[in-house]
Write a structure and sequence with these properties.
Number of helices: 13
Radius of gyration: 19 Å
Distance between the termini: 29 Å
Structural class: mainly alpha
Order of helices and strands: HHHHHHHHHHHHH
Strand content: under 5%
Helix content: over 70%
Number of domains: 1
Largest sheet: none
Shape: globular
Length: 312
């Protein structure tokens, strides 16, 4: 099998698992499970399992320079934990597809960061993509209001904030990836990101709540098939693909999320929301293609220097 095709299949598989996450999580939120509990369990167990695997296989990789410990905490708390909680809370308040597409505004925020912080010039394509993303988000908000969900402004706000957190997660994660293995950054980010939630939902209290076996199976599914497995697939896929095609293939995630939400939950997007989602997808495609034309690429030999995929 050609390496490029292998990369497409691996990234598509990762997008498939991430796409299922929202619908499955929303199902259990409808059963009165708290997003706070889910985020605490997901970050804690995923981070612990991943760091233990690294410890037994390559313990030297776990060493952090004293000057970078604070940076790793910032990445974990301001990046990983915010992305996780805001995304899952948005799912608990809105329909799954809306939550996913709102987070996909992240690339637009990354472009804005490059313009205002790094003083980069905004090309016509980037400007068009930003306008499309803004228009798409406006249509999604309008669609929510017309659907009688205008009272769910908290969910809409956290949806936009999740996109901001995702953009910070990617930008700040690149700084750490220049010094550490990508799996190490991910593992520490997950575990450090869980620490603030331990004060709100201590793990020992969660264990003592006597959840049913079905809930604990769900926790296991989220840790393994919504976190560790898709990240592994995405990292392997990034060995063979440049950023633009990988980013575009990852856009299967919101499509899968919408289909899964329809099949499992009966959620249907209205016309305005569907139009807004299409505009956001088109904007992300333009931004990814422009990145490729600018000459950005990933090393083909190792996944260690790859950009961290978005954690769903």
């Amino acid at each position: 099998m050609p390496n490029e095709l292998k990369g497409y299949l691996l990234v598509a598989a990762a997008a498939f698992f991430w796409g299922l996450t929202g619908a499955v999580a929303k199902y259990f939120f409808n059963q009165a499970l708290s997003p706070l509990v889910l985020v605490t369990v997901r970050l804690s167990l995923s981070g612990l399992i991943l760091l233990l695997i690294i410890f037994f296989r390559h313990p030297r990789l776990l060493y952090l320079h004293p000057g970078d410990i604070g940076k790793m905490f910032i990445f974990g708390i301001a990046g990983m934990s915010c992305v996780q909680f805001l995304y899952l809370y948005t799912i608990s308040q809105l329909n799954v597809a809306t939550a996913v597409f709102l987070q996909y505004l992240g690339p637009a925020f990354i472009v804005l960061f490059a313009v205002f912080w790094n003083r980069e010039r905004l090309s016509r394509h980037s400007l068009s993509a930003l306008l499309m993303a803004m228009g798409g988000s406006a249509l999604i908000v309008a669609g929510q209001s017309l659907a009688g969900l205008s009272g769910h402004w908290a969910g809409l706000l956290t949806g936009f904030l999740s996109a901001l957190a995702m953009s910070f997660y990617v930008i700040y994660g690149k700084v750490l990836l220049s010094h550490y293995n990508s799996w190490v950054v991910l593992g520490y980010g997950l575990l450090f990101g869980a620490i603030p939630f331990w004060f709100l939902e201590p793990p020992w209290v969660i264990y003592g709540l006597h959840y049913s076996g079905r809930i604990w199976l769900f926790f296991g599914y989220i840790v393994i098939f919504s976190t560790l497995v898709p990240f592994g697939l995405a990292f392997m896929g990034l060995r063979y693909l440049k950023p633009a095609p990988a980013g575009i293939i990852m856009m299967l995630e919101p499509v899968i999320a919408g289909i899964a939400a329809y099949l499992l939950l009966g959620e249907v997007l209205g016309g305005w929301q569907l139009a807004g989602c299409c505009l956001i997808l088109a904007a992300v495609v333009i931004l990814n293609l422009e990145q490729q034309l600018a000459g950005a690429s990933y090393p083909s030999a190792s996944a260690d220097d790859s950009k961290i995929p978005v954690c769903k």
